[in-house]
Give the backbone structure.
Amino acid sequence: MEEGICQALGWPNAEQADIARAWQRILGQVRTFADLEPQLLGRVEELIDFVTEPKA
């Protein structure tokens, strides 16, 4: 998935180091939740809930 996002943005994506640089680039641009579009923020919150939900 991350490779596809990087590819869509025109960023290098062939190696794990490329993905790591992409995350650094993204995270370097976000200072507060106000920096995110509401639609994206909602999806991020859903993802956090999903990955932190205890396994049954």
The CA atoms of residues 18 and 24 lie 10 Å apart.
